[in-house]
Request: fold
Amino acid sequence: MPVASTGVSASPRAAAVSDEGQPSGAAERSKLAPGLHLVATPIGNLGDLSPRALAALRAADVVLCEDTRVTRKLLRHHGVDRALLAYHEHNAARMRPQILARLQAGAVVALASDAGTPLVSDPGYKLVRAAIEAGSEVFAVPGPSAVLAALTVSGLPTDRFLVAGFLPERGAARRRAIDEVGAVAATLVLLEAARRLPATLAELATALGPRPAAVARELTKRFEEVRRGSLAELADHYAGAGAPKGEVVLVIGAAASGAAPRALDEVDAALADALATMSPAAAAATVAAATGHARREVYRRALALKRPGAPGGAR
Reply:
């Protein structure tokens, strides 16, 4: 996926650690350039930690993490003993000045999320931005990502995709977010709490229409599962089966693109037919997906058609 950059930063210092053994202590730490190292960690299978990521964690003067208990378990599994410092959305603003001071003093700081690649749905980007502005080096130590893992096994197009993270939990903000991401001509990747998955799928099926989708659950873990189908089919399945357990990533096919939206009189004709058997919301979702018009606009037309006395409306 192309990434745009508004600036260029170069450093003559190498960020890599030699692969000729990984001794502990100061000798190893000297091999890692001072700066902020973004270390991707396993999303489930502890064996997915890369040799370079392990070397970076061993070499760090301090490891920043969302939950010290989770990261300590990972480090102990690999025989690593390093100072851990909690850095998460609740303390980020307070902790950033302390971390920036360490970076300015020449420390090697590793930032790791509980699982996967840092900065994806966590506050790490604010620290990266502040470190760059302060003149500190920032290095990527890439590896596991639940977003990319789910995308690649979904069977949906991967040439263009939007990582939308978690939707707002309720209300107008949630409806607005669904409308906004639903109009994007790209595969959508959403994160969702397992307990909310049935309701979310039902809402998305109504709002976005008959799009292909995949629910990826517990990726790389013992009970890994990928269930594919239309949004409506997946909504029906989880309505009956109930909320699943574990970590969930939802991948949804793109909005229709390429064809010009149908004329409004065609939209109204399609709505009139759909309203004979559907609610205004369901009719709007179906017709919007078929005609290329925004669901919100089609829904307003559906309500107008449903009014008594409107052409084709209720009598």
